[in-house]
């Protein structure tokens, strides 16, 4: 039986993205995302809160988009999977590092600098602030699904005839 390795985060960036490039020139971006949890202690009645920090890695076009548009304080939605890497530190000790490798990212609200969730910056003018490594695959899957129009609506348009636009080189839809 296959397992499931899926992470979903909705959190706040604790710092600006760290972008670097692989030897082949592909972008790699690392994010530090905070998620908060709060509850009321049943014994004391006091509100408790805990912040959990997550290291998220993005690759390729998704990494370029994140590096260009995300800033500290911005809320972000991430889908991905956990990946644990083993490495040896300078002292020769084997260590492990667990990251979330993002397959999908969505910018939420504004840039984190304005109150009220107002959008700011060119990146917010994109269709919905959503970027995905699997965009091409998702479009192909949508094209393969059959849609049946409800007869009560008469001649409904055939959505399978509408071409899907892919990401252009700058990462816009």
TrEMBL record:
Question: Which residue ranges are recorded for the region named Disordered?
Answer: 106-173
Q: What CDD domains is this protein classified in?
A: SSB_OBF
> What are the entry keywords?
DNA-binding
Gene Ontology BP term (one): DNA replication
| Listed SUPFAM superfamilies | Nucleic acid-binding proteins
Say if the entry is tagged with keyword Membrane: no
Q: Which GO terms describe its cellular component?
A: nucleoid
Q: Which GO molecular function entries does the Swiss-Prot or TrEMBL record give? A: single-stranded DNA binding
This protein's name: Single-stranded DNA-binding protein
Q: Which organism is it from?
A: Rhodanobacter denitrificans
Q: What is the lineage of its organism?
A: Bacteria, Pseudomonadati, Pseudomonadota, Gammaproteobacteria, Lysobacterales
């Amino acid at each position: 039986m296959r397992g499931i390795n899926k992470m979903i985060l909705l959190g706040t960036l604790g710092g600006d993205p760290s972008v670097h490039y692989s030897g082949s020139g592909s972008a790699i971006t690392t994010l530090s995302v905070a998620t908060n949890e709060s509850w009321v202690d049943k014994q004391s009645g006091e509100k408790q809160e805990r912040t959990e920090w997550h290291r998220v890695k993005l690759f390729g076009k998704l990494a370029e988009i994140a590096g260009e548009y995300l800033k500290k304080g911005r809320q972000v939605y991430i889908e991905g999977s956990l990946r644990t890497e083993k490495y040896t530190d300078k002292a020769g000790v084997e260590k492990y590092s667990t990251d979330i490798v993002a397959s999908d990212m969505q910018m939420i609200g504004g840039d984190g600098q304005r109150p009220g969730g107002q959008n700011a910056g060119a990146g917010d003018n994109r269709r919905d602030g959503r970027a995905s490594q699997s965009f091409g695959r998702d479009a192909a899957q949508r094209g393969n699904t059959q849609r049946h129009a409800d007869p009560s609506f008469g001649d409904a348009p055939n959505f399978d005839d509408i071409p899907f636009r892919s990401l252009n080189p700058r990462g816009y839809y």
